[in-house]
Amino acid sequence: MAVKFLDLHGQYLRHQTELDAAIQRVIRNSSFIGGAEVEAFEQEFAEWLGARHCVGCANGTDAIEILLEALGIGVGDEVIVPAMTWISTSEAVTSIGAVPVFSDILPGRFTMDPEDVARKMTDKTRAIIPVHLYGLAAEMDALLGLAQKHGLKVLEDCAQAQGAEYRGRKVGILGDGASFSFYPGKNLGAYGDAGAMVTNDAEVAQRVKLIARHGQFRKHEHLLEGRSSRLDGMQAAVLRAKLPYLNDWTEIRRRTAEMYQEILSGTQLQLPGEPENCRHVYHLFVVRSDQRDKLREFLSKRGIESSVHYPVALPFTRVYQERFGHGPEDFPSAFMMQSSILSLPMGEHMTEEMVAEVGDAIQEFETP
Ligand SMILES: *Cc1c(COP(=O)(O)O)cnc(C)c1O
Fold first, then answer.
1. To test the ligand 1 pocket, which listed residue (81, 132, 181, 284) has its Cβ within 8 A of the most ligand atoms?
2. What's the gap in Å between 59 CA and the centre of ligand 1?
3. Which atom of ligand 1 is nearest to the CA of 61?
4. Among 136, 138, 148, 214, which one has the highest count of C-beta atoms within 10 angstroms of its own C-beta?
């Protein structure tokens, strides 16, 4: 049996009536940019999250960039980001003229290591961006403590963690602001690019709105030079159709993770953990293996898709290698993880049979 890594088509078929109707609604109303769908989604998403303000934008990378700018970060400032994340996190820092400074990750937890963050702080440090990687909240108590002590802003990158919790609170409302991506493959995905910025601070909310809408609250009254980063009506309507199912989808992801834990507990793989004070939403189910590449090939031959997030930690990618010249000894955990991590199929399409199929294949790989 083939096992897909992700099944967007299956999801569409299961909710086709609502999704088709949502798209039709936008076309009939010609509300392509802004309008009622966007406003309704912003409100519904904020409510679901427990946040005061949500402002839609074009994608998750823009969301980080605009939030940084709204938080007053700019040229020459240093922003600490984790060594293991998608490049958006550090790219956004560079785009606004600031300098990304990498911190190592906690081995096995994969989120930024607060002790290394403390070591990387200088008198130019102005903000930190914890990434709730794979759907698991970063160690927020320690990071918020550091930020408070040193007067730093905290921007949560929640692209992979819609609905994840830390000490009973959803991520996205723990810092000064939070960015979300609704890239199609995320736990809540649009049918194109989409993102959102979330904050409990009314002033930050006003500023991100202003920046994302050409510096205007009212047409032709430009209070500053902003940019164009909008959530379009079609994406908002699709997201509104899907949001009511997100909690159920998360439950299926969590149940899938539980089944993986059971089936894989006797194997040589190292499995992801869920710290007691966290609720993991398993955007990805990432295991570690000494024979990662061989295992991946074996699974692929059995029709089981897998992926690697990410095969090269950011400080070791070409662009940052050339700029900063970091070596493996600077980020020992990220360096060790990058060659052993493997993301197994995960999503609300997963059935017990699919998990069993993956489990059987892994056992067969280990004891042929
Ligand atoms: C997907 C992702 C982003 C960026 O989102 P886009 O919508 O693709 O711009 C940012 N950070 C992380 C950690 C992501 O996984």
1. 181
2. 8
3. 9
4. 138
| 287 close to 272: Cβ distance less than 8 angstroms | yes
Supply the DSSP symbol for 269: P
Mutate to test the pocket of ligand 1, among 68, 95, 157 (most ligand atoms within 8 A of CB): 157
| pLDDT tens string 234-290 | 999 999 999 999 999 999 999 999 999 999 999 999 999 999 999 999 999 999 999
- What is the model's pTM? 0.97
Which atom of ligand 1 is least distant from the CA of 63? Answer: 9
Compute CA 241 distance to the chain's CA centroid, rounded to the nearest angstrom: 21
Are the C-beta atoms of 229 and 69 separated by less than 8 Å?
no
DSSP one-letter string for 51-84: -SEEEEES-HHHHHHHHHHHTT--TT-EEEEESS
* Alpha carbon distance 76, 16 (integer Å): 49
pLDDT in tens, 86-142: 999 999 999 999 999 999 999 989 999 999 999 999 999 999 999 999 999 999 999
